[in-house]
Design a protein that fits this description.
heterodimer; A: about 200 residues; alpha+beta; Ctag/Cox11 (Pfam 04442); 5-stranded mixed sheet; 4-stranded antiparallel sheet; about 35% strand; flat; binds protoporphyrin IX containing FE; binds copper (II) ion
Chain lengths: ~200, ~550
């Protein structure tokens, strides 16, 4: 064992170095993969890619730009996991940028058990999404519907007057998903409160 | 002095003593034995995956549902892809790397022989795991069968498949570990084990393409591992990485998957480029045209492959800027790829060519792979891709680049080096039959799929509109023809490798062969280059040896 003069030992030292570096690179790539999650989320928030809507804005007063009219279309779907009827009250409305507007969505639970849903919004086209600010939305919280229960749910929004002039129509689309965790929790609470009664 | 040291430490224990079967094959650390294991494993997987493809084509023979349930059909398309990609193509290339790289660079073995043993022996376990849900269901009626959401494992569909998801994901983890260990071994061998005088730019192109492939593997296999780990926790541990209801985003999976997926397709083609760059000069009896251009083209393809992934996702609703960026970046890859094709053609230009079976497969590769490249360029055009996406046009594209690309190169390599490995010549007449039957039927099989795709037939469906009946019938006939032709290949390999039948091969095997591997006997001694060879430029592989 005389490392400096033994070529065999030099080769194994080199090999160990390659292995070490390669494993480090692998660990880096694995870590990079998970870091893509926050990177992607932040990227989508900044650019509005993927229809992530603008920030939840307070009701700060903005100047209403009456020279422009934008058509806002509404769309509502419930995911196959959630047996709800869900649709917008009106298909579209015309608004001025800067004007605080509100629209109603309607949901009914068609199932025989209490279900908790979570609506996920998306705005198209992408360029419009960061200018579309919601001040109140049923998608901010979970929605619980008893069997057969129906509800009208408002969304209040304001379109930022800085929205590019090329945008004439904006579509606000919601998909209602089943929130499994909350539904299980509610079912458990029910069985606890039901038992003493019976 | 240096030669002595290497010699002494290496030959002592093994020489010529008989190892037991178990010790030789299960505990092997010899690069040739492990290479053989990889190649045989790959051949078995090729037939398993091929059988699944024939189930698919049998169902699609005529419109309507006749042979299998739609759910089982989906399992076939999913498993066919996973088995072929991870079981047939990738292990075949690793097997070739194991056999050839030490002999090409004048090394006594791979740099890390024990890790080499591990990286092979993980694979049978990984594939048992992958195939288990399917085998249980198909042969014993237990469970719901294998994964059926497509090899790309897109959520939410892939997560709706029951517990087989866990089997698939753990199998993918194991394959990933195996590939990474194989890649580390290749890098260490090439960087540290070259014989004195074998400069990097004197190495055969095959070593270069594998070196670059190994870097790609190390960069992207962990990304795949991460992506499927997130799928696993989404399914079983209530995370919401890709679950929109919980604030996640299924489109993000597609981004991560294709960040792995596009480099992965190059992992499956760069070693093929290397093989073809060895074979064409041999049978053209001319040095490779533009050796350095080949090396740099390979490196630029590898680099570009990281910035084109979203061409698989043009239709998910990307901003216009994104669509344009990924469109142009994708088209840019055609430039270095074109450099390669032109270099192969220039090598053949005004040369004295002969067409033994390896050369036939290599020339077939150049022509048919290029057709696949062209259809890729069509798919890269965003507005066109909106029409072609998820149709049979895409299926035709990737089968031209993978079957007549990657698989053809593996066949070419097998015919080229089989006499070296086994010491006997394969049956040339049968080899030619294999080539011509394969080439005719592979085109009958995949060319009509272009037309089906243009007409709008979606991929991954068990039934279709009668308007598509004629081309599907033709395609299925081609599939069975191609499948049967592969039995010839298996027979040729069995003849050489197991029966030892055939003429005795000379050391050089081919008239125009160049490179260190041909200076060894056929078959080479179990331990070759225990003493580093003295490098003469005339022994070196075709390329720029004078620079
Ligand atoms: C000139 C080079 C190439 C270009 C421009 C190209 C372009 C494309 C595009 C745009 C797609 C997406 C089509 C769609 O889903 O709508 C695609 C799919 C695909 N390509 Fe290529 N490609 C090229 C070379 C290759 C090579 C060399 C391979 C593999 C050896 C390959 C394998 C695949 C595979 C497997 C898919 C389909 C993946 C799936 O959806 O299952 N391509 N290609
Ligand atoms: Cu790609």
């Amino acid at each position: 064992m005389n490392p400096p003069t033994d070529p065999q030992a030099a080769v194994s030292a080199n090999n160990r170095r390659v292995v070490k570096r390669a494993l480090l690179a692998c660990a880096g790539a694995f870590f990079f993969c998970f870091s893509l999650i926050p990177i992607y989320t932040i990227y989508c928030e900044i650019t509005g890619v993927n229809g992530k809507t603008g920030q939840i804005s307070g009701e700060q007063p903005v100047l209403v730009d009456t020279s422009r009219t934008i058509t806002v279309q509404f769309d509502g779907t419930s995911h196959s996991s959630l047996p709800w009827q869900f649709k917008p009250e009106v298909r579209e409305m015309k608004v001025h940028p800067g004007e605080l507007s509100s629209a109603l969505f309607y949901a009914q639970n068609l199932d025989k058990q209490t279900l908790v849903g979570q609506a996920v919004p998306s705005v198209a086209p992408n360029v419009a999404s960061i200018y579309f600010n919601k001040t109140e939305c049923f998608c901010f919280t979970e929605q619980l519907l008893e069997p057969g229960e129906q509800r009208e749910m408002p969304v209040r929004f304001v379109i930022d007057p800085d929205i590019p002039a090329s945008v004439k129509t904006v579509t606000l689309s919601y998909t209602f998903f089943l929130n499994e965790l909350a539904t299980q929790r509610v079912a458990k609470e029910h069985s606890v409160t039901d038992n003493p009664a019976s | 002095m240096a030669e002595h040291a290497t010699h002494d430490t290496h030959d002592e224990h093994h020489d010529d003593h008989q190892q037991s079967f178990f010790m030789r094959w299960f505990c092997s650390t010899n690069h040739k034995d492990i290479g053989t294991l990889y190649l045989l494993f790959s051949l078995v997987m090729f037939f398993i995956g091929g059988f699944m493809a024939l189930v698919i084509r049998a169902e699609l023979f005529v419109p309507g549902l006749q042979l299998v349930h739609p759910e089982f059909f989906n399992q076939m398309t999913t498993m066919h892809a996973l088995v072929m990609i991870f079981g047939a193509v990738m292990p075949a290339f690793v097997g070739l790397a194991n056999w050839m790289i030490p002999m090409m660079v004048g090394a006594p073995d791979m740099a890390l022989p024990r890790m080499n043993n591990w990286s092979f022996w993980i694979l049978p376990f990984a594939f048992t795991m992958l195939l288990l849900p399917l085998i249980q269901y198909a042969f014993f009626g237990v469970g719901a069968g294998g994964p059926a959401g497509g090899w790309t494992l897109y959520p939410p569909l892939s997560l709706q498949g029951g517990n087989n998801v866990a089997f698939t994901i753990f199998a993918i983890h194991m394959m990933g570990v195996s590939s990474i260990m194989g890649a580390i071994n290749v890098i260490a061998t090439i960087l540290n084990m070259r014989a004195p005088g074998m400069d990097l730019l004197k190495m055969p192109v095959f070593c270069w393409t594998w070196l670059i492939t190994a870097f790609l593997l190390i960069a992207v296999m962990p990304v795949l591992a991460g992506a499927v780990t997130m799928l696993l926790t989404d399914k079983f541990f209530l995370t919401s990485f890709f679950n929109a209801a919980g604030g996640g985003d299924p489109v993000m999976f597609q981004h991560i998957f294709w960040f792995f997926g596009h480099p992965e397709v190059y992992i499956m083609i760069l070693p093929a480029f290397g093989i073809v760059s060895e074979i064409i000069p041999t049978f053209a009896r001319k040095p490779l045209f533009g050796y350095q251009a080949m090396v740099y083209a390979t490196a630029s393809i590898a680099f570009l492959s990281f910035i084109v992934w979203a061409h698989h996702m043009f239709t998910v609703g990307m901003p216009l800027g994104g669509e344009l960026f990924f469109m142009y970046a994708t088209m840019l890859i055609a430039v270095p790829t074109g450099v390669k094709v032109f270099n192969w053609v220039s090598t053949m230009w005004k040369s004295s060519m002969t067409f033994e079976t390896p050369m036939l497969f290599a020339v077939g590769f150049v022509i048919l792979f290029t057709i696949g490249g062209f259809s890729g360029l069509m798919l890269a055009i965003v507005p066109a891709d909106f029409q072609y996406h998820d149709t049979y046009f895409v299926v035709a594209h990737f089968h031209y680049v993978l079957v007549t690309g990657a698989i053809y190169s593996i066949m070419a390599a097998t015919y080229y080096w089989l006499p070296k490995w086994t010491g006997v010549m394969y049956n040339e007449a049968l080899g030619k039959w294999h080539f011509w039957l394969s080439t005719i039927f592979v085109n009958v099989l995949f060319f009509p799929q272009h037309f089906l795709g243009l007409a709008g037939m979606p991929r991954r469906i068990p039934d279709y509109n009668v308007a598509f009946a004629d081309f599907n019938l033709i395609s299925s006939i081609g599939a069975f023809g191609f499948g049967l032709a592969q039995l010839i290949f298996a027979w040729i390999v069995i003849q050489c490798a197991f029966l030892g039948r055939g003429a005795k091969a000379t050391d050089h095997v081919w008239e125009g062969s160049k490179g260190l591997e041909w200076t060894l006997s056929s078959p080479p001694p179990h331990h070759s280059f225990s003493t580093p060879p003295v490098i003469n430029d005339k022994d070196l592989a075709h390329g720029d040896v004078t620079h």
